[in-house]
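Researcher: Before we compare anything, I want clean individual predictions. No alignment, no superposition, just each chain on its own. First chain goes here; please echo the sequence and then give the structure tokens.
Model: Echoing the first chain and its structure:
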Amino acid sequence: MTCLACKSNDKDLYCSIDSYNLFRCLECSLISVETMPSDQELERFYNDYFKTKQYTSKLQSKIRRAKKRVKSISKYTKGKKFLDVGCNVGFAVEAARQLGLNANGIDVDNTAIDMANDLFPGCTFTADSVETVAEQGKKFDVIYCSEVIEHLSSLDSFVESLLKILKPKGVLLVTTPDMGHFSLTKDINKLITSKWIRPPEHLFYFTKQSIKNLFMIKGFSRIKFMISLKPTIKMLGFKD
């Protein structure tokens, strides 16, 4: 199994949970599931998972938090075309609209998109994958992708598509859990029992180094990290 982030073949077994073996790259510390679940397995998992989630609760506070984040990244570009990749019910897209951006959101979950269209009719939402958007030739100045990449079995094509749809001089924000954060325990058993490591919901576990490697290999010209006191990577990607 070649590491997607640094292309090394040096790895060791990090842990096993249920039927999933997770391996850690010895070069960049990316942790990933050895055998990716099928699309059918993931569909069954998420059908059950979303039944227990209340994504519309505390909507206004979620919009306020997203507004701060969108404002902090939109200063890096003069362009106004915004896309939230994996937008769910659309609170970050609405935050972008309130900041005067041309606000768009995509998600592969049709139910989430239907809810987003009902909640925020001033924004544009479509049930598309980022790969589909890239094939359509669409481009954006600001791309927002929060807590998405750790879920993906098709990580390679996803990152390649993000690069394709980002305009030159645009900015991409990616957030994901930080396996290398100073506040996070190194005790694997504690990480498992606390559900920090939880396949098949999360298939990849990044450090700053591994996520930087991945995006630089795919063609991003510069990577910058925002400060985070919580175990979350906040990465900005730029394209010349």
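Researcher: Okay. Second chain, same rules.
Model: Second chain and its structure:
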Amino acid sequence: MVDTYLLACNACGRCCNSAPTLSLRELFRHRHRFVGALTIRRVPKRRIGERWRAGGREHALDADDVAASEALAGRLFHRTGGAGNEWIALTLQGYDYPSLGRCAALADDGRCSVHADKPSICGAVPLDPMLPDRLQSRVLAARRDDAGWLGANCIVEAASARSSVESSFPIPLVTAGQVEDRAALDVHRDALVFEGAVWRDAVFASLTDGGQDVRHALSRLAPGGYLTVSIVPVLLAVASVSAHCRALCLTFIDAQLALIGVNIEAALARRHADDRPATRELRGFAQALERARHALVAMPAPAAGLRDDAPRIDAWLADRLDLDTLAA
């Protein structure tokens, strides 16, 4: 199997075909551009001997592949505790009309309008932070086969790099199976870990304690399947951290309500029947945000000093400090 790949990006925008995954910090930063939603995904449990088709060939996962997958899952995901002892991933996703087929930050010239401040996932692509480093060469092989990437010719094998991209300067991604620069992967993963204490642990606990209906819905998710729901449970968890966090949540809600209104108005002007399900969901998001706003305004101010980590969370969500500084 080919295990050395380079990136020859030509800024075609083909990989920017949908709204990105974001941390809550990034979503607060880009609150006027991306409608935020909570995604609940059942992570497939990797098994020794599992067949993975990539690069036109099938490859079997070995014990080291499975061990690396489990180790990363232990950092990033939550274990269901059910009979299958599987993992649930809680992430925040930009939500937009699928019919648009493009990221809301993609400019008319095909370039990113928030490039200097882009979400961490955008810096990691075409690598996948949710999979271990040792599987990234297979991620790249699979992306090359994906219909959405056909014609981009940006993921190139080392052997063909010189002949196929003479006019560009390919950036090494994976060499002999080893990720060349892990920084972008680490930034995305570290943000997920930090935001475990900010909202992910609390939201997962509320899901598992949410009664039989919630547990049944989670159990019905197929491996790799997901649910997209309102971001309100995240905001309610964060608002309880501190008065500053509550203020940030209220500011976010106001921006989201305005953005949802603009997006729905544009969809109605397009008059595409395919947009109707997304319009219904966005209206549901808006109603949930309105209720959350009333609840947050009525909520007593969180007592100062209630949480030792509140100052760090305040600084993180307000974009004042990076993870390296917070960890110092």
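Researcher: What stands out in the second chain?
Model: The chain has one domain: 5-318. Additionally, The first helix runs from residue 24 to 29.
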